[in-house]
Amino acid sequence: MATDRVRVRGLSIHRPIIYGNTASLLTEKETSPSGHTHKWTVAVRSAASGPDSDIVGGADDLGYFIKRVTFKLHDTYPNAARNIDKPPFEVSETGWGEFEVNIKIYFVPEAGEKQITLYHHLKLHPWLEGEGSVPPPLEVATKLGPVHSWQYDEIVFNDPFQSFLNILTAHPPTPLPRTSKKPVPYNTANPASLEASRGGVPEFTQAMEKEEAEKLEAAKKAVFMEQERLRLRLHEREKELDLLKQQLGET
Asked: Residue 134 is part of which domain span?
């Protein structure tokens, strides 16, 4: 067996990515199919952003470990399953409604890994805090600028093949900045005031990475506690069942 096809046991290596979308209203000069109100781009990118870039993430070319990304759009779109075989891994379209995008990431042959599936709810409207379930008026949405909806994640490779490990180590990811120096944009997950929301592009930072890790750990603990609660409840029900069986046997 070739040494480069031997797995490096006990080692894990990860690559930070973001996936999500940006969307903006179509202008009067932009043509689109009847009824379409927005133009949008859904993408899988590196988590770090380029210097002075107005694009969320994308500082690194992910083509060294990602072979293909398939974006499954709503069935009303022609060729709804879009296969993107080289960076940038993204799809741009126009539309009027929000829907869930199924994202499949396929890795290069050297990885020897199965594809992974992610899910993203396409966001078009800048929902304002305290405004209920109704999008803001057109003139307000225009002032808010593009809507951004992005999720940070880490693709973890456990016990990688030596050949694939060599590829990964030859392409270290761009470190995330400690803090963002860019203007604060509108964030659909944490709405700010109208004044604070104007302009700007989201940027993922080390602080946000730490926050996401803490959220994941808290979620794991919550799942464990719920499992323990259900286990104890099941044990109590089994005891009650045994008691009923004993009482029936005595009658």
From this structure: 3-202
